[in-house]
Amino acid sequence: MARVALAKHAPFAALLLLLSAPLSAAPPDAYDTLSRLVGHGKAELIQRFGQPVDRVTTIDGERLFYETLDTGRVGGVSGRNTRAGGPGGFGQFPGGYSFLCRTEVVIADGRVRAFNRSGNDCH
After folding, report:
1. Contacts 24+ apart (CB under 8 A), 97-100
2. 35 backbone φψ class: left, alpha, beta (φ>0; ψ -120 to 50)
3. pTM of the model
4. Which terminus of the chain faces fewer neighbouring Cβ atoms within 10 Å, N or C?
5. What is the DSSP secondary structure assignment for residue 52, as one 8-state letter?
6. What's the rounded Cα separation, in Å, for the pair 102 and 98?
7. Torsion 43-103-115-35 (CA) sign
8. 69 and 99 in contact (C-beta within 8 Å)?
9. Which of 92, 100, 93 is nearest to 117 (CA)?
């Protein structure tokens, strides 16, 4: 009886095993890379991530800011004037998308001390 129940759920067990397997082949994302840089020098941060888009000097050091932005358009072009309040004759309203991630890195004594990421596309 137990074998029948186990065989019945075998596909689910295999799926769970697959999903729980470590993704060691996946490249490290920016969060992992930043985590490893805490305690390392500012020069190493800039070597890996490039020049920041902005920087602010503070009493205890500085804050470096990095941004990634991905924008684009989706949808078709309307055949009619869409200002009248409806989609045109050839399809949908063209739309846009915007994905942004802003990273703030705290530098003190020439070393990376902390970081914070915010936005809708931080991975």
Report:
1. 97/70, 97/71, 97/72, 97/73, 98/69, 98/70, 98/71, 99/68, 99/69, 99/70, 99/71, 100/67, 100/68, 100/69, 100/70
2. alpha
3. 0.60
4. N
5. -
6. 13
7. negative
8. yes
9. 100
Contact criterion met (CB below 8 Å) for 65 and 51: no
Residue labelled with tokens 């936005």: 119
Tokens of 38: 């805490």
**Residue 56, both tokens:** 């602010």
Q: In tens digits, what is the pLDDT along the chain, a chain of 123 residues?
A: 445 454 554 554 443 344 444 444 444 577 888 899 999 999 999 999 999 999 999 998 999 999 988 877 666 555 544 444 555 444 555 667 788 889 999 999 999 999 999 988 777
Would you state the structure tokens that stand for residue 122, as one six-digit string? 């931080």
Residue 84: DSSP 8-state:
G
Residue type, 1: M
- In whole angstroms, what is the distance from residue 75 CA to residue 93 CA? 6
